Amino acid sequence: MSEKDDRRSANYALAALFVVYIFNFLDRQILATLIQPIKQSIGASDTQMGMLAGLMFALFYTFLGLPIARQADRGSRVLLISLGLVVWSVMTAASSYARTFTQLALARMGVGVGEASFTPSAHSLIADYFPPQRRATAMAIFTIGANLGTFIASAGGGWVAQNIDWRPAFLMVGLPGLLVALVFYRTVREPPRGRWDPPASRAPMALRQALEALASRRAFVFITLSAALHGFSSYGSGTWTTVFLMRVHGLNVAQAGLVIGTLTAVVGASGAYGAGRLTDRLGRGDARWYMWVPALASIIALPFVLLFLYLGDPVHAVIAYLPGQLLVNSWVGPTYAMTQSVAPPPTRALAAAIVVFAINLIGMGLGPVVVGALNDALAPRFGLEAVRYSLMVAAVPHTLAALFNVLAARTLREDLARAA
Question: Does residue 291 lie in a domain region?
Answer without folding.
Answer: yes
